[in-house]
């Protein structure tokens, strides 16, 4: 897989150990995984170039290789996208990942932040922080026409 873009989140103000403001970190990565048991047309192989990764999709470690790639390029936030083990149902996988670590322009206010359940999918619930803040126009007292 090849990195399409990367900005490292370097410290803009302070020291690395005590940084008060960081540049956003951004990593965009792409890969095309091809089952090593099959030949690719040379013009396709040339087109995907440095994005091409080969693995024997019937090997017990094939799913782990793909998941390790995703884990690395998302800084561990996504540790798997495919089941571990052989990935025999596929002959080609195109994977893109985007990792962004940046501060909010308007940070969440602690008073409006709470822990709640997040439905990652139909089978998985996770605890996650969420925030609710609403501005609404209201009047106290009689409304004058």
From TrEMBL:
One MF term in the entry's GO annotations: serine-type endopeptidase inhibitor activity
Limits of the Serpin domain: 23-126
Gene Ontology terms: cellular component: extracellular space
Matches recorded under InterPro entries: Serpin_dom, Serpin_fam, Serpin_sf, Serpin_sf_1
UniProt signal peptide: none
Family listed: Belongs to the serpin family.
Protein's name according to its UniProt entry: Serpin domain-containing protein
Organism of derivation: Trieres chinensis
């Amino acid at each position: 897989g090849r990195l399409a873009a990367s900005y490292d989140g370097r410290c803009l103000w302070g020291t690395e150990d005590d940084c008060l403001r960081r540049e956003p970190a951004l990593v965009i990565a792409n890969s095309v995984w091809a089952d090593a048991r099959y030949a690719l047309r040379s013009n396709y192989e040339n087109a995907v170039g440095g994005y091409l990764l080969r693995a024997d999709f019937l090997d017990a470690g094939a799913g782990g290789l793909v998941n390790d790639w995703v884990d690395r390029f998302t800084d561990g936030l996504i540790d798997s996208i495919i089941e571990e083990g052989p990935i025999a149902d596929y002959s080609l996988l195109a994977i893109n990942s985007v990792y962004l670590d940046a501060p909010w322009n308007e940070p969440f206010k602690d008073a409006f932040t709470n822990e709640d359940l997040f439905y990652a999918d139909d089978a998985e619930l996770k605890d996650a922080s969420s925030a609710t803040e609403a501005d609404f126009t209201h009047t106290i007292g009689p409304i004058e026409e």
